[in-house]
Design a protein that fits this description.
This protein is mostly helical and 53 residues long. It is built from 2 helices and no strands.
Length: 53
Protein backbone atom coordinates (compact mmCIF):
# COMPACT_ATOMS: atom_id res chain seq x y z
CA UNK A 1 0.00 0.00 0.00
CA UNK A 2 2.81 2.42 0.87
CA UNK A 3 4.51 1.72 -2.48
CA UNK A 4 1.37 2.48 -4.50
CA UNK A 5 1.22 5.41 -6.91
CA UNK A 6 -1.53 6.95 -4.77
CA UNK A 7 0.95 7.97 -2.08
CA UNK A 8 3.77 8.86 -4.51
CA UNK A 9 6.56 8.59 -1.93
CA UNK A 10 9.27 8.67 -4.61
CA UNK A 11 11.34 5.74 -3.42
CA UNK A 12 10.66 2.14 -2.53
CA UNK A 13 9.39 1.51 1.00
CA UNK A 14 11.04 -1.63 2.37
CA UNK A 15 10.20 -1.70 6.08
CA UNK A 16 7.03 -1.45 8.11
CA UNK A 17 8.52 1.46 10.07
CA UNK A 18 9.11 3.45 6.86
CA UNK A 19 5.58 2.76 5.71
CA UNK A 20 3.93 3.83 8.95
CA UNK A 21 6.14 6.79 9.84
CA UNK A 22 7.05 8.28 6.46
CA UNK A 23 4.19 7.42 4.14
CA UNK A 24 0.92 6.20 5.60
CA UNK A 25 0.71 7.61 9.09
CA UNK A 26 -0.45 5.89 12.23
CA UNK A 27 -4.10 6.93 11.88
CA UNK A 28 -4.42 5.37 8.43
CA UNK A 29 -2.73 2.15 9.54
CA UNK A 30 -4.99 1.91 12.61
CA UNK A 31 -8.07 2.48 10.44
CA UNK A 32 -6.96 -0.17 7.96
CA UNK A 33 -6.30 -2.71 10.73
CA UNK A 34 -9.67 -1.97 12.33
CA UNK A 35 -11.44 -2.38 8.98
CA UNK A 36 -9.81 -5.77 8.44
CA UNK A 37 -10.70 -6.91 11.94
CA UNK A 38 -14.32 -5.77 11.64
CA UNK A 39 -14.85 -7.34 8.21
CA UNK A 40 -14.64 -10.81 9.73
CA UNK A 41 -17.52 -10.01 12.09
CA UNK A 42 -20.12 -9.68 9.33
CA UNK A 43 -22.04 -12.81 8.37
CA UNK A 44 -22.70 -12.31 4.68
CA UNK A 45 -25.31 -15.08 4.67
CA UNK A 46 -27.57 -12.95 6.91
CA UNK A 47 -27.06 -9.77 4.86
CA UNK A 48 -27.83 -10.81 1.30
CA UNK A 49 -27.89 -7.22 0.03
CA UNK A 50 -24.54 -6.27 1.57
CA UNK A 51 -21.53 -6.33 -0.73
CA UNK A 52 -18.32 -6.10 1.31
CA UNK A 53 -16.29 -5.29 -1.81
Amino acid sequence: MANSAFFGFGRNVTTLEQAVINVLGLDLVKGFALSLAMSSVFDLEKCAGFDIK
